[in-house]
Amino acid sequence: MADVESFTLDHTAVQAPYVRLIGVEHGPKGDAISNFDVRFVQPNEGEIPTAGLHTIEHLLASLLRDRIDGVIDISPFGCRTGFHLIMWGEPAVADVVPAVRDSLRAIAEDVEWEDVPGTDAFSCGNYRDHSLHSAREWARLIVDRGISLDAFERVGV
Q1: Helix, strand, coil % in the chain, rounded to nearest 5
Q2: DSSP state of 121
Q3: Band of residue 16 on the pLDDT scale cut at 50, 70, 90
Q4: Are 97 and 156 a contacting pair, CB within 8 Å?
Q5: Which of 106, 131, 149 is nearest to 17 (CA)?
């Protein structure tokens, strides 16, 4: 089986919340795609409930694209402690963090239910499993804690 970087990461050594560049892949024509670990909750100490995580996912899909160029996808980890953020090019962690922070701030303070995209059977495969209340609570906790520029030290928070 192929090695997967996230399974070699020492999850006991990281200090969430943080944004970490996992790696950059280059395509046959030289295009670069960056994969970021956007970790909101300390691994093995907690997890975001599925309904709140689902709502955060839907909101980040739009809010991040409004705040930083090159977003391809943002998808939750199965462990529910954060997200993979896939982007074109090689953006710096220092550029990604403010976009993530401001998106979470918007979730915590500005977003209303009507603003959440993909909350019906047509546009979501599990539309009943959403919670804006939970999304707001978690977004506020993460913003208040601060998002580090480093996975192993609290930097820039």
Answers
A1: 35, 20, 45
A2: T
A3: very high
A4: yes
A5: 149
Joined tokens for residue 4: 């997967």
| Residue carrying the six token digits 């070699």 | 8
- Nearest in space to 49 (alpha carbons), one of 73, 81, 15: 81
CA distance 50 to 155: 29
CATH of 14-145, one of 2.60.120.260, 3.40.50.300, 3.30.1360.80, 1.10.3210.10: 3.30.1360.80
- Give the C-alpha distances (Å, rounded to integers) separating 57 from 14, 83, 107, 122: 22, 8, 11, 17
Spatial separation of the C-alpha atoms in residues 44 and 25, rounded to whole Å: 29
pLDDT tens digits for range 69-127: 999 999 999 999 999 999 999 999 999 999 999 999 999 999 999 999 999 999 999 99
Query: Both tokens of residue 54?
Result: 């689902």
pLDDT digits (tens, 9 = 90+) for 28-53: 999 999 999 999 999 999 999 999 99
Enumerate the domain spans of the chain.
Answer: 14-145
